[in-house]
Amino acid sequence: MRSSLSNKLWMIFGPKPPVNWLILCVVSVLALIIVLGSSSSNAVDSSPRRQASLIYTNYRRIKERVAVDYLELKSVSSGGLRQKELGLCGKERENFVPCHNVTANLASGFEQGEELDRHCQVLKEEDQCLVRPPKEYKIPLRWPSGRDIIWSGNVKITKDQFLSSGSMTKRLMLLEENQIAFHSEDGMIFDGVKDYSRQIAEMIGLGSDTELHRAGVRTTLDIDCGFGSFGAHLLSLNIMAVCVAGYEATGSQVQLSLERGLPAMIGNFIARQLPYPSLSFDMIHCAQCGIIWDEKDGMFLIEVDRVLKPGGYFVLTSPASKLPGSSREKKRITLNPLEELTQQLCWTLLAQQDETFVWQKTADLNCYESRKQQAIQLCKEGDDTQPYYKPLVSCISGTSSKRWIAIQNRSFDSELSSAELEIHGVHPEDFYEDMHFWRSAVSNYWSLLTPLIFSDHPKRPGDEDPLPPYNMIRNVMDMSSNYGGLNAALLEAKKSVWVMNVVPARAFNALPLILDRGFTGVMHDWCEPFPTYPRTYDMLHANGLLSQFLSERCSMLDLFLEMDRILRPEGWVILSDSVGTIEMVRTLATQVRWEARIIDLQNGSDQRLLVCQKPFLKK
To answer: What is the DSSP string of 128-170?
Structure first.
């Protein structure tokens, strides 16, 4: 059995056994003597309760200090004053996405499409190295220019690849040898995105797509989104649209969408649920997504129903050219199984125009009691708690949830009412305290995102920044989102960003609350790689995650390597944690070659910020 300290060091450095234990033990004993001697001298006037608190605090600091001392001793024993910087990975890993190795999945016995799914359990041990950018990589254009024009060298797609694809050519135009342009009116679907969006609104019964909020639509899941043109239009209407598409070795929809500054992540309909709780989205959209919805006894459509909120809409567009035959009779035969499934799910077909169908999910629980006896069964209460890549189910979820509220009756404001907070098990006082904290924190954070912080005269929190960097930051990930407070504060401050709110798998599950606020988010286990491509986020933020991570049986260095993989060159990292933890991981920041500085917020707390910037490592 490893000692407690050994476990901590193993988590930080990985399974490689540490060296020079004798020196480490001596330092530990000396630190213990000094701290206990100091605490005993002040013990006369302290109450027993204060003594216990002080002993606990000193004990925690001893453990943190020992780990920091070990980092320094290990560096000295290797002959250097700092940890050796990690090398760069080979060219073959420039677009490396862990857990999506089709060859390894096939060798492990996965088949019938499951080889394309996410399988972290077959992830082989790789050399610890930094994923390098492609030779032609360039810093993305500022938002909103970067939404419409990207550098072709930043994504794994070639001119020949997209010119050979008819559907892709309709959406893309090569301006020059190194640029791809996306048109707002690119003919992605029939007569253009705006016309298509207006058509959907009219089918719902609205006069215009600007009225979609009136129908309760604040969030949309866009399945196999192409390259995000529909989602980009919805974002302009203040509707949070997130793309989900399967892993693709080249021409990835997710990679291209994120490169444009649009929300997206890898996910698919194969064998497991999406990492969202039940009742997550107001609208789910599928245009030419290629999914055969009545396969596997309709479990793909049942999964759509699971994440669709009561009263929400499912929009399906399937052009006649994609169907086996173009006659109306053949089309009706093709859609019959789908129609039967939607009836069992208590969906109502609102309208059909051309090749677009719009269904609405019932908000009336009595509908399920009036169905035929052989209809799809309801899931047992509690079957859909803490979803994290669980197998697909063949029953209807969410009907026993306290969140079963029609989208038309929900608050539009991201500041939920006290009654809504109680549904999520959150005290209003805690929620509003969190909200006020992030309002003040955002201005401090934002002012630090400048290279001046690494100079001999660094900026302090709240200093006015003469060259605001906000246009260079678009894709933000909050790695340990609590209630989505950082997201709300950034929007309130009118920053041109979107936030992927990540709820750690073993933390309090506030993801339903975050989604009900109209934000996007996902549940994730940080002992595993995140389902995205390299170089897809401009800023990573984590508050308290590192302290929690120390109790996990996985390597802290692996976490930093994963953060480096998904962070763009010249991207930013803000880590907020206890002073001991921050000092401990600063060495890891130097190992992954980040510029780093510890910031004391000077508010009397034990918290520190570690602000880092990833360099652009050119070949």
So the answer is: --BPPPPTT--PPPPTTHHHHEEEGGGSS--HHHHHT-HHHHT
Tokens of 143: 């938002």
Q: List Cβ neighbours of 103 (8 Å cut-off, separation of 6 or more).
A: none
The residues with which 375 forms a beta bridge, in sequence order, are none
Q: Using DSSP, how many helices (H) and how many strands (E) does the chain show?
A: 20, 17
Partnered with residue 540 across adjacent β-strands are 477, 573
The pair of structure tokens assigned to 465 is 């920044």
**Token pair 């492609």 in the structure block, residue:** 134
Model confidence pLDDT, tens digit, residues 17-68: 444 444 554 445 445 444 444 443 343 343 333 333 333 344 344 444 444 4
**Kind plus residue range of the DSSP H or E element containing 15:** none
Q: Which residues make Cβ contacts (< 8 Å) with residue 187, sequence separation at least 6?
A: 170, 171
- Interval 135-151 mean pLDDT: 90
Q: Which residue type is seen at 607? A: Q
Listed in sequence order, the residues at least 6 apart from 165 whose beta carbon sits closer than 8 Å to its beta carbon are 251
Whether 560 has a pLDDT exceeding 50, the answer reads yes
Contact of 490 with 476, CB cutoff 8 Å: yes
Instruction: From 153, 149, 148, select the one nearest 138 (Cα to Cα).
Output: 153
Plot region of 586 (φ>0 → left; ψ -120 to 50 → alpha; else → beta): alpha
Question: b vs e for 65-96, b when ≥16 Cβ sit within 10 Å of the residue's Cβ?
Answer: bbbbbbbebbbeeeeeeebeebeebeeebbbb
Write the CB contacts of 609 (distance below 8 Å, at least 6 apart in sequence): 445, 448, 461, 574, 575, 576, 582, 598, 599, 601
The vertex-449 CA angle with 545 and 61, nearest 5°, equals 35
Could you read off the pLDDT of 397-418 as tens digits, one per residue?
999 999 999 999 987 777 888 9
**Of 229, 259, 241, whose CA–CA distance to 155 is shortest?**
259
Residue predicted with more confidence, 316 or 103: 316
**Residue with the two structure tokens 């500085």:** 597
Q: For the segment 304-343, what is each residue's pLDDT rounded down to a tens digit?
A: 999 999 999 999 998 743 433 333 444 443 457 888 899 9
Rounded Cα distance, 374 and 284, in Å? 26
Q: What are phi and psi of 292, to 5 degrees?
A: -90, 100
Please, which residues bridge with residue 24 across strands?
Answer: none
Closest CA to 530 of 556, 502, 506, 550: 502
Structural tokens at position 132:
């390098």
Name residues whose C-beta falls within 8 Å of residue 370's C-beta, 6 or more positions apart in sequence.
none
d(CA 260, CA 186): 15
**In the predicted structure, residue 282 carries a pLDDT above the cut 80:** yes
Question: What is the distance between the alpha carbons of residues 387 and 267, in angstroms, rounded to a whole number?
Answer: 14
Q: Which pTM was predicted?
A: 0.82
Contact 540, 589 (CB under 8 A): no
